[in-house]
Amino acid sequence: MNETLTSCPVCGGNSFVTERTCTDFVATGQEFSLQRCTHCTLLFTNPRPDSRHISPYYQTDNYISHTSSKKGAIYFLYDIVRLISQSNKLKKINERLKNKTSLLDVGCGLGYFLNTAKKDGWKVEGLDVSEEARTHVKQHFGIDVHKEEAIKGFPDASFEAITLWHVLEHFHNLQEWVIDMGRVLKPGGLMFVAVPNSESYDANHYQSFWDGYDVPRHLYHFNHKSIEVLFSKNGLTVVDRLPMIYDSYYISWRSEIHKKSLLGFLKAVIIGQISNWKARKSRNYSSVLYIIKHADK
């Protein structure tokens, strides 16, 4: 069942402009509208499936972040990118947090980053909505992963680092999650939040075919301003923005698949490279890693 938002999930404004219609290329072929808040500039899926009816949109082999299948070229490429990116993610964290104490990975999926951090000396906790993913992490890495609602039970100031790798855009109760994460973040700790950037060159190039929209699983399509408004409303501040370089190539390849392009992989490499090159000046990379701390700490 769909729900229609009458106020902006980030700023609470009630003035929207419908910007485009996108297709669910992964599961159903349904179309969804994207609306822009005229105040904070958030682009969001509206109407959208409510939290009780979103699950079927994830239950497909084409949605790969929660499947351990190794079938096909898409899965193979995804695994390669995933493995390469783990050390890069951890390096960014270790450069800014010297004490390897406690790390919470929200939406940890199959646990590859969680395991990388554990082997590096971090005391890790993971949260994920998927029972299959939680079981996979336990069986392969020996790490107990909690259901997402377990964040409510963590004591205040529990974690030095909180990571969300392409997770924030999936939360129906967006403000509640930001409040909970701010509560369990230690004074002086940092959040690392990676999301697709709807103002990147590749987003503009692919338009409604852009894989970063991924409707209706992606409920929000952030840009720099809307991210900063979201966290500042909840006593948090963005202190840095870093590029997720590999994402431009992968998202471009997925977008070419949606377009059913000939020579799609080659085209994706070219568009991904152009996107990264243009973003050196604009800072609008295909995906951006936001580093966030308490505003008063």
Description:
The chain has a 7-stranded mixed beta sheet, with helices on both faces. Strands 2-3-4-11 form a 4-stranded antiparallel beta sheet, with no helix packed on it. It has a two-stranded antiparallel sheet with strand order 1-5. The chain has a single domain (2-294), classed as Vaccinia Virus protein VP39 (Rossmann fold). With 297 residues, it is an alpha/beta fold. The chain has 8 helices and 13 strands. Helix 1 (72-96) runs parallel beside helix 2.
Radius of gyration: 18 Å
Give, in spatial order, the strands making up the sheet with the most strands: 8-7-6-9-10-13-12
- Count of helical segments? 8
Number of strands: 13
The helix/strand class is alpha/beta
Name the helicity range.
25-40%
Low-confidence stretches: none
Instruction: Provide the CATH superfamily.
Output: Vaccinia Virus protein VP39
User: What oligomeric assembly is this protein in?
Assistant: single chain
By CATH, the architecture is named 3-Layer(aba) Sandwich
Using the coordinates shown, work out and report the CATH topology.
Rossmann fold
- Share in β-strands: 15-25%
What's the overall geometry? globular
CATH class equals: Alpha Beta
**SSE series:** EEEEEHEHEHEEHEHEHEHHE
Measured distance between first and last alpha carbons = 42 Å
Count up the domains. Answer: 1
The chain-level mean pLDDT equals 93
